[in-house]
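Supplementary Note 3. Input sequence used for the single-chain structure prediction.
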Amino acid sequence: METQNVVPAIVDNSLTIKTYLIYLPIAITMTVLVARTLFKNSKIFMMDIFHGRAEIALATNRLFEIGFYLLNIGAALLILKSYRIESHQELIEVLSHKIGGFSIYLGVILFLNLLLFFRGKRKASQSPAHPVK
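The predicted structure, written as discrete structure tokens, is reproduced below.
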């Protein structure tokens, strides 16, 4: 019986790695820009929701911001995996799919956050104001 020596083929993953190296900074930058804008402007809502109590309003806003980062960077990492990319055309198509999908996801999460802020504002306006100490 003859034994065949099987030499593994060298797989070129350089385009796949390039895709990851392009996608990750874009996804993280998008997350940071959306978070900064959202949470800089949400301080006003939090102050209103918590009837001017700055300490609790700012702390709650910061916790929402941390959760926003964790959720969105986690989602960006979950969709990172890609099949082997063999051409520059595939690289562009995969990037457009990933970045486009992540953009839509970020938009949905942004609107859900706004919904939470507006809901909190409405509830706060229905409850009696707590005196500011």
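The two ends are 90 Å apart (CA to CA). The chain has a mean pLDDT of 87.
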